[in-house]
Write a structure and sequence with these properties.
By secondary structure, the chain is an alpha+beta fold. 35% of the residues lie in helices and 19% in strands. Strands 1, 2, 3, 4, 5, 6, 7, 8, 9, 10, 11 and 12 form a 12-stranded mixed beta sheet that branches. The two termini are 37 Å apart.
Length: 440
């Protein structure tokens, strides 16, 4: 994220002022220097962004003491992640909005492979980084996004149920008592609720099918007064355009409660969205593009119809309202590949539905940069506090980069922040590296 040369003075001054601002959110004065050192270390070049190598880069003449200070600050100091993330957001958001309005709130999760069984939340579960079940940690995030930039504003580890119920393991890694087992959609909805309470600029909520297929999650967003564009699985059921559940039966004479619930039968039933898509006429599929890719405009074929979600509506007394079902069927594929449900306005045009649905791609860029450039997945500690502190500081470093890039034209946003740094000690090797391991 940087080069070992002196950067322009104005940028250095902005970075120093930014760190002063974050230091106020960290609380005690004794946390100021390690906070500045940690964020600076994350910005500097280097393959590892764990504590010891960063200490060697920022203080080559005093590695041991600096290592101890940084380690205590990230692993043990009781500063508030929420307060620091709020300071990051309050700095970066105005810069982002100068380049364009907030267009989406994006829910996602990310994981990374982790060896062993003692690090907080590590378990065999699906890991997006490798695309399969693996021993890993997974965190859920909420980001705010303009068309060109995005920033995580909430971040929390997903604690598998096997961990949540194991009191001994919880105590060993310092999981707070208030933390209980929650599904990923439940964690995300909690993050969204907090963002609403902070009165952030409202925008449609975007998420993939792991979240969008959860009816309670979609309904929870609607109850908060937000629109959504949610990926769903091909097996989700809906009522075909123009249809709805059968009305409740007429009340019968005599005793007993009158019928209140909607009905369906063999001749009048919902369909899975894949079957609905396959049954659409060819004319329903239109070509649409959404952004520039490395090889020109990205485009595909889409269709959009108004439907009613059908999941367990036989337990309801009123049908669900109509919403958009957006479907993608690339010309080279044998069948549709992606599906979304959306509460965007009924008058929305197809190209706008597509553009909103595809805005979620930007979060993938964030995760890639947070991991590859800022060391999000480099933390080597085991505890709950350290896991979240490290992620918060990575997001803090990223927030400054987002703000800097928002100052310039889109073509200049790939520029790198450059900080001056002294050379690491020639004989320094982090613990555990091949040159420091005892002979077998």
């Amino acid at each position: 994220m940087s080069a070992n040369s002196v950067a322009p003075g104005a940028q250095q001054e902005r970075f120093a002022a930014y760190l002063d601002r974050l230091a106020q959110a960290a609380g005690h004065a004794d946390r100021v220097d390690p906070l500045k050192g940690y964020c600076t270390g994350l910005m500097l070049d280097g393959e590892r962004k764990s504590v010891e190598p960063m200490a060697a880069r920022i203080a080559p003449d005093n590695v041991r003491q600096t290592h101890q200070s940084l380690h205590h600050f990230v692993a043990a100091a009781p500063w508030s992640d929420a307060d620091l993330l709020e300071a990051v957001r309050s700095y970066a958001l105005p810069a982002m909005q100068k380049a364009g309005p907030i267009e989406a709130w994006i829910v996602d999760d990310t994981g990374w492979v982790k060896k062993g069984t003692h690090s907080v939340g590590v378990a065999r579960q699906y890991c997006g980084q490798v695309g399969k079940q693996e021993n890993c940690q997974v965190a859920v995030s909420l980001s705010i996004s303009t068309r060109e930039a995005s920033l995580p504003i909430a971040w929390r580890l997903y604690l598998p149920e096997v961990w949540a119920k194991d009191e001994e393991r919880r105590q060993a890694v310092g999981v707070p008592e208030k933390i209980c087992f929650q599904t990923k959609p439940e964690i995300a909805l909690e993050q969204i609720r907090a963002a609403v309470e902070r009165e952030l600029p409202r925008a449609p909520v975007l998420a993939d099918s792991a979240y969008g297929s959860d009816t309670e999650f979609r309904e929870g967003i609607t109850e908060l007064g937000l629109l959504y564009m949610m990926g769903i699985k091909s097996s989700v059921t809906v009522w075909e355009p123009g249809q709805r559940p059968l009305p409740k039966l007429a009340a019968r004479k005599g005793r007993g409660r009158p019928p209140k619930l909607l009905r369906r039968d063999e001749r009048h039933a919902p369909v899975v969205v894949k079957d609905l898509a396959l049954g659409l006429p060819t004319a329903a599929w239109k070509k649409a593009s959404w952004r520039e890719g490395t090889r020109g405009k990205l485009h595909s074929r889409f269709a959009a119809v108004r439907v009613r979600a059908a999941h367990r509506d036989y337990k309801r007394s009123e049908p669900r309202p109509e919403e958009w079902l957006l479907m993608e069927w690339p010309p080279e594929e044998k069948e549709p590949t992606k599906y979304w449900l959306s509460t965007l306005p009924a008058h929305s045009q197809l190209r706008n539905l597509v553009r909103v649905a595809k805005q979620r791609w930007i979060i993938e860029r964030d995760y890639e940069e947070l991991k590859q450039e800022l060391g999000l997945d480099h933390y080597e500690g085991r505890g709950w506090r350290g896991f979240h502190h490290h992620a918060t500081l990575c997001i803090a470093a990223y927030g400054f980069l987002v703000a800097e890039r928002s100052r310039f034209s889109p073509s200049a946003r790939a520029g790198r922040l450059e900080l001056s740094v002294r050379k690491m000690p020639r004989k320094f090797h982090p613990r555990g590296s091949p040159r420091t391991r005892p002979a077998a």
